[in-house]
Amino acid sequence: MTQELVQFSFQPKTLEEAMKFAELVAKSDLVPKDYKGNAGNVLIAIQWGQEVGLKPLQALQNIAVINGRPCLWGDAVLAMVRGSGLLEDFREDFHEPSMTATCAVRRKDQPTPISRSFGKADAEKAGLWSKDNYKNYPKRMLQMRARAFAMRDGFADVLKGIAVAEEQQDVIDVEVTALPAPPEPPKRLSDRLDPIGEWEKSLSESADLETLQANWTRLTVKDGFYHTLNQEQQARLIAAKNQRKQTIEAAGAKLKDAGLTDGEGT
């Protein structure tokens, strides 16, 4: 005698099923306090989960009601964005001296990354630094705010306008709480401080025309670093290449005139 595996789903298919499910869940001890005894909140969370692609139990664990708004916790936001298949690269950094967290994301088929930062100075300006969660977990709170900015700006279509919980927790009273200024527009990686210095140096110090051409070819390969630069930065590299070429050719001409070469090289 074989025993068949019976599979079942907590995915309500009708409004009646959803209401019964919400009532059952609201009586459970395994749900967050926002849903305990509140079938209405459960039902709304399930619907929000449907909107953003979360199953009912996932929605109940990852959607919180904060200041009257349904919100996703920061880790769930990252999981959703990763699961969308649109995230090509993700990086979070923390600068200890300035207590500043940075989150950088890159969408597939979009060469321009989006980088957002949030630091102690921003939290102080917004009146957040004295709050208990910032006192107890300063790095984590700064990290989540930087992540919220980057994810909302880069993947609004995935999040569908839902707020980020760690960010919404800071909005106690929108009439008296100062929020940080809107994030800056997306920047190219090439907009960082002198990002082309190493390439400019390698071109300027090329030993001969062959080396110079090889360096230039590596720099300008299709879809390479050169094509992410703005016009001013590209002009700097072109000038470095042309200047080095002229210097090498002039030196070769002098050696040729002095009879020290065969006319083809040093």
Distance between the termini: 89 Å
* Protein structure class: alpha+beta
Classify the helix fraction into a percent range.
Answer: 40-55%
Task: Output the number of helix runs.
Answer: 12
Quick check: average pLDDT? 80
Sheet with the most strands, sense and barrel status: 3 strands, mixed
- The helix/strand series, from N terminus to C terminus, equals HHHEEHEEEHHHHEHHHH
Shape: elongated
Number of domains: 3
Unreliable stretches = 173-179, 187-192
Give me the side-by-side strand order of the main sheet.
Answer: 1-2-6
Total count of strands: 6
Percentage of residues in DSSP E strands: 5-15%
Radius of gyration: 28 Å
What attributes characterize this protein structure?
3-stranded mixed β-sheet; 12 helices; alpha+beta; elongated; 3 domains
